[in-house]
């Protein structure tokens, strides 16, 4: 018996056919699902050339459909695809009150504060916390990241530098192998160096959003 779905793609119900009646049409949410599966479906190396034709045949779509799915994902999707991983920003928590610091200087001429924060991220829909201490002075800020969760370890793996990995305590060294071992335990595919750097860039770009910035500014205004 022929297996019409050898890659275990998610069955979706089309909304109709296009004007030429040569491909199926799908809702925007289903188009996002199709787009994500191009990158998130685990495909054996010997089946790589078979996968995309199988995906198009399963959904009865063409290359133009895939192009449209990419546009829809970019327009309304709430996540990013980084190689074979989907990463999404979750909620934030302010875990402490603002603490006034004595690090005033002539450059900012502003009171400095620190506050303990937590930002949730999702990798392939698996929730992973990212805990950091936030230093704020004037319009600038910096973060000091914990070193407990796998995302926090990704950050330190990228930012510690090669010498730190060579010269540090072997028990404390974070390696790509140890990171991937933790990812495997969570059911997340392994990452190569390029993916690791791209994920860390994404985290740094999304660690503070507008809602979190507004909440912090309210606290700062009340403290000053």
What topology does this entry show?
Layout: E1 16-17, E2 24-25, H1 28-40, H2 48-59, H3 63-76, E3 80-82, E4 85-94, E5 99-101, E6 112-123, E7 126-137, E8 140-145, H4 150-159, H5 162-167, H6 176-185, H7 193-206, H8 210-223
Helix pairs in contact: 1-3, 4-6, 4-7
Features:
single chain; alpha+beta; 8 strands; 22% strand; elongated
| Unreliable sequence segments | 162-167
Shape, per Cα inertia axes: elongated
Number of strands: 8
Summarize the main sheet.
Answer: 6 strands, antiparallel
Report on the structure:
With 224 residues, the chain is of the alpha+beta class. Helix content is 42%, strand content 22%. Strands 3, 4, 5, 6, 7 and 8 form a six-stranded antiparallel sheet that branches. Strands 1-2 form a two-stranded antiparallel sheet. Strand 6 (112-123) and strand 7 form a beta hairpin. The longest helix is centred in the N-terminal third of the chain and has 14 residues, at 63-76. It is elongated and about 70 Å long. Mean pLDDT is 90; it is low at 162-167.
């Amino acid at each position: 018996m022929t297996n019409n779905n050898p890659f275990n793609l998610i069955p979706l119900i089309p909304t109709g056919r296009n004007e030429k009646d040569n491909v199926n049409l799908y809702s925007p949410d289903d188009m996002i699902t199709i787009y994500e599966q191009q990158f998130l479906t685990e495909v054996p190396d010997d089946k790589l050339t078979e996968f995309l034709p199988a995906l198009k045949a399963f959904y009865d779509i063409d290359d133009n459909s895939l192009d449209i799915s990419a546009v829809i994902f970019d327009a309304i999707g709430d996540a990013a695809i980084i190689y074979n991983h989907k990463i999404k920003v979750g909620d934030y928590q302010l875990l402490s009150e603002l603490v006034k610091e004595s690090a005033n200087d002539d450059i900012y001429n502003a009171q400095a504060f620190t506050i303990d924060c937590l930002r949730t991220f999702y990798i392939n829909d698996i929730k992973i916390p990212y805990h950091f201490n936030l230093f704020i002075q004037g319009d600038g800020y910096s973060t000091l990241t914990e070193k407990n969760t796998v995302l926090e370890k990704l950050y330190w793996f990228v930012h510690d530098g090669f010498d730190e990995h060579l010269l540090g305590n072997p028990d404390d060294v974070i390696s790509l192998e140890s990171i991937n071992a933790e990812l495997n335990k969570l059911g997340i595919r392994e990452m190569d160096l390029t993916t690791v750097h791209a994920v860390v860039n994404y985290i740094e770009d999304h660690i503070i959003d507008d809602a979190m910035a507004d909440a912090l500014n309210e606290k700062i205004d009340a403290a000053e």
